[in-house]
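Human: Here is a favour to ask of a fellow structure person. Comparing notes only helps if you start from a blank page. Give me a protein, with the fold worked out from its sequence. Please set it down just below, with no commentary around it:

Assistant:
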Amino acid sequence: MFNPMFKFARVCLIAFSVNILSLCSVSYAFEAVASIEANAQKFVDLFAQKKIDSASQLMDKHLKEALPSHVLQSLWESLEQDNGAFVSFSAARQLSKLSSHSGVVIPAKFKNDEVDFVVSVDDDGKISNLVVRPHPDFIDPIYGKKDTFLEIPLDVVSGKFSLGATLCLPQGKGPFPAVVLVHASGPHDRDQTIGSIKVFRDIAWGLASNGVAVLRYEKRSRQYPKERLATVNDETVDDAVAAVRTLLHRPDVDHEKVYVLGHSLGAVMIPRIAQRTPEAAGFIISSAPSQSLEDTILSQIELIEKASGISDVSKTIESARMEVKQVKQLSEDPALLIGAPLLGLERTWWSDIKKYDALESAKKISQPVLVMHGEKDYQVSLKDVDAWKAAVTDRPNFKHKTYPKLGHVFTVAGENPGPADYLAPLNVSDEVISDLSVWIKTAAK
């Protein structure tokens, strides 16, 4: 549910229009990745070669209607007029899947600038949407003082998986307090790059500049995309526990001050991570929803479709509502756990998460816990914030902090918060970095 990904409606958005970032549903059916990327690449190749009619033949009927050949040709002409002559494409990268559409990002270099072609491919291999967006720019946070820390490459070994990782280690004499960063759902990189924002990189640089070591790692679903994730443990928990163990084996880390910060789905799973890491000094729950994950996914799909300009109930919404109903009807009958994924997730994944109550489980954590929410988070509602506050209001080891101007990834949100907030090059708020730094250094006292 909380995975930054681009959702592609069946209605085409014109060049440089803002498409939608959804941090919700994730698919792990990666068997067809190669063909999906190949179809997307073939489409943009034909587009760049100005073989418009051939490119059109690869589109589904809805996109053909929304984007007839003469409009597609005008789109390419405007791209070259604005950005100079086309030069080349970079490697395609598949995004997460929502409903029956998979997204592929293909960066394109023009003489004067770069753009991203975001191509949606349906289950029949047809191109169902095209979005052209500015290639992401990233800015370094002012609080990230690079001369005060080192970035050390290492691996987090979790069972049979070896995950590429970076330890951001302060300069000077250790051992240092340390934090493990646990991703939202979906195939994230170690920086948890969302649009033009590198959420985990900013946190790592900010904390390391303040004397706190930070471990961030590639998510299993990114480094091993063909591996089946049958449970939330497979997706999130097992690797977070392995990352904690990695820090506990390092002499430059204070083993009495190892913390875990989870974001979105990672935050929801903090109570389960806490149960398996009793040696951790404390936990940080950031941007965590409280309602059921299937309901959160559905509300985000409906928001996305509305923001895409679709006023009627689309096939995407109809399909999502039907699958939400099936998720709610899942029982422990093994026969019902066999079948196609629901909302892009394995049925066994849903069976696992439905047996888990994050709010009740959180009450069992005895270590210090910091709960953080942005009040302008359009993906996690104020009802979710209130639910977390109410659940732990009588727990003296919990501290809750909200930020009036910040959104889901703790960057400043726009006047009308929405997916466009992720497209601007922003940094995690320095107030958040300061609060984290102070809490980590004082929580165990």
Q: What stands out?
A: The chain has two domains: 3-134, 146-287+357-442.
